[in-house]
Amino acid sequence: MAPRLNPLTTLTAAAAVLVITTAASSWAVSLTVAGGAALLAGVTGTARRVLLAAGVILAPFWLSLLLMHGLFFPEGRTVLASWGPARITAEGLGFAVDMGLRTSAFVLVLLLFSFSVRVPELVAALAVLRLPPQFGYVLASTLMLAPIIAARLEKVRQAQESRGLVVGKGIGNRLGAARLQMVPLVLGLVHDAGIRAQALDARGFRRTGPRTTYTQVRDSRAQRGFRILAVLLAVAAVAVRIAASLPGGGQA
Amino acid sequence: MNSHKPDAVTLRAAIESFAFHGDSRPALQGVDIVAAPGTLTAVLGGSGSGKSTLGRLLGGWLAGGRDGTLKGRLQLEPGGQQEAWQPLVFAGADTDPQIDPAAWAEQVGYVPQDPAAMLSAVRATVEEELAFGLENRGTERAEMVRIVAEAARRTGLAGLLERDPATLSGGELRRLAVGCAIVADPAVLVLDEPLASLDVDGTRTVTELVTAELARGTAVVLLSQSTDALARSAEHWLVLDGGAATAAGPPDRLLAGEELASSGVVVSEPSGPHPVQAQPRPCPAPGDVPALKLEGVSFGFDTKNPGRPLLLENVDLDVWPGEIVAVTGPNGAGKSTLLRLFNGLLKPLRGEVRIGGEAIAGVPTGIIARRLGLLFQHPHDQLFERTVLREVLFGLDRVFGDEAPGRAADALAAVGLGAAGSAHPHELSGSGQRLLALATVLAREPEVLALDEPTVALDAHGLKRLSATMTAAAGRGAAVVLVTHDLAFARAHAHRLVELRDGVLAGR
């Protein structure tokens, strides 16, 4: 994830890791990948943002998994506790943990990628692959959407606080403040987008002719080799997984 | 922006009328303009005169049919031996021609009044933003690098190429917007208030750029609400009032006429703007406690980088009740940052800020807001409500209870927006938006007013309102700190000028 790496290398690595994690279908692999992603986030200095965003996404997901599968897992046989129709089974908990860890690995790897990639370099690298520039812009604006929303929200918050809004520390206070900020946030973003569309048109964004890229993206034979290897490993993992699930192919 | 001259092109526009969809009254009516190669044409007008609408129409940012009903004709007329292009005739019908904004922008470069509107928002550095339009045109990389370096040199941005555009100051952002327009090397350049928020160096840079473009044969259209030095160098003036052309001709003749004054244009001397002159008032005698006190305040954004100097270093400032202090200084010096330290939006690394003798450390900004009102540099950042009235009423009931509606109405009346309560803030002109932002601050009657570039985008009527409200606030005992590049306004109104430069605040 160092800035020297070609974004296609990090993108390929992230995609390959996720494919292998899915193919492995093992809580230990998922846990290792999630832990590795968190560790890498620490090394690249994005730990705080990655973990915060992951927490926001994963906390409700884990809660719903544990509620749904921990309490109501039809295939569960080993009952640990029960209250009427709800029963905690070892199989249900195992399934919830497996799913939770796999999703955590996905979320952490993707967040790590999106927080550490330099978006203009990714767009430039995609342009080298001759993908349509609109695809690059949509990808770039999607990856930069969070910072744009965060910046706009910060401006609304500053404007409101400068006119007497006091945001307390409690969850109720924060929710109340968020309610006041949502409408200005959305209206502001829509207004900005309308103006930006005119500027993009005038600056030739919708032109159909050939394009070039200003940003130079570093690449090397080693990185190209690594990308091929990563793709091969991912394909191999899928092949092994399919072979293992065929009749007589061993345990799925 | 090539080394050779752009092909000479004359822009002719005859706008019979243009009305935005849903508006019964046209925003423009009976406006004719000719921008010939190597000439500077200044379109002058006050707030809501239709200048920016005209600029956006000329620049291809507004289109007949898509954005409103346009009747009239637009024509780009190539010089020399080139084959003439057909005029685009608009009748307000579905069969009207459609302008390709990108193809149009190759001939006509437009820089909007709000420079942030020019940015793509997907480029992380100034140089990438400058190159965005070139990338879309398929310019070879080596050529792009040359053009970007040249545009950066000409706009004074050479030292800022690696910066994130979102971190630029107002003046730097305006120069970046100009840079984004000139990289395409257009034959016609339409500049909407290009000198707003610029410091002395920035003004000189942009003025030199315009002069160089004229010498290369570019036709330049300047949209301005002030007869500043750049406007005075124009060969031809066109005065707009209420969307209609009320006068046209050489500057000398129009300066002698009545139309300028009634249109709200700020008539300034050639040496610089001299807007509303306030009566000289004696500096209020210092009392026991300053209304605002900064003691040894230091601040920097990137404190983890030991090589980067602090933006503010050991700043001391006392502002007494009733006193007006103007803070000047170059773009990017940290003037806006200084104001954000006053109400706790930013926290000092060292030192202390006191309001009425009480330290604000640890006090939420929302509480400080009862005593200090901050006018943001960009009204767009300050306005967030659905109507003008709601905007002023926000949070006012917590201060004044049942009196809040009356206070809001008074504040709106004071800035001349008493009749605009139900309008959406974005519908107001640039001047109207700034006055509305000012009303939101005035309505709270704070002990300290911190105003960031309050004169920018204000026409003569708006400057009068600002002058009157600011003087009245100081008269009732409020301390006023005013950040501005408008030295004439500062000298006319402030008891004291201080300059922020290289992190140090010094009296002048």
Strand order of the largest sheet of chain B: 6-7-8-3-9-10
Strand content of chain B: 15-25%
What is the CATH topology of the largest domain in chain B?
Rossmann fold
CATH class type of the largest domain in chain B: Alpha Beta
* Overall residue-averaged pLDDT value of chain B: 89
Percent range for helical residues of chain A? over 70%
Tally of structural domains of chain A: 2
Tally of DSSP β-strands of chain B: 20
Radius of gyration of chain A: 23 Å
Per CATH, the superfamily of the largest domain in chain B is P-loop containing nucleotide triphosphate hydrolases
Largest interface: A-B, 48 and 65 residues
The low-confidence runs of chain B, each spanning 5 or more residues with pLDDT under 50, are 273-280
Shape, principal axes of CA atoms of chain A: flat
Rounded to the nearest angstrom, the distance between the terminal CA atoms of chain B is 41 Å
Indicate the topology.
The complex is a heterodimer of chains A (252) and B (508).
Chain A: H1 7-24, H2 27-44, H3 47-71, E1 79-83, E2 86-89, H4 90-116, H5 119-128, H6 133-143, H7 145-161, H8 171-202, H9 221-245
Antiparallel strand pairs in A: 1-2
Helix pairs in contact in A: 1-4, 1-9, 2-3, 2-4, 3-4, 5-6, 7-8
Chain B: E1 9-20, E2 28-35, E3 40-45, H1 51-58, E4 68-78, E5 88-91, H2 101-107, E6 108-111, H3 126-136, H4 141-154, H5 170-182, E7 188-192, H6 200-215, E8 219-224, H7 229-232, E9 236-241, E10 244-249, H8 251-256, H9 259-263, E11 292-299, E12 312-319, E13 324-328, H10 335-342, E14 350-355, E15 358-359, H11 365-368, E16 372-375, H12 379-382, H13 388-393, H14 397-400, H15 404-414, H16 430-442, E17 448-452, H17 460-475, E18 479-483, H18 487-493, E19 496-501, E20 504-507
Helix pairs in contact in B: 3-4, 3-5, 4-5, 15-16, 16-17
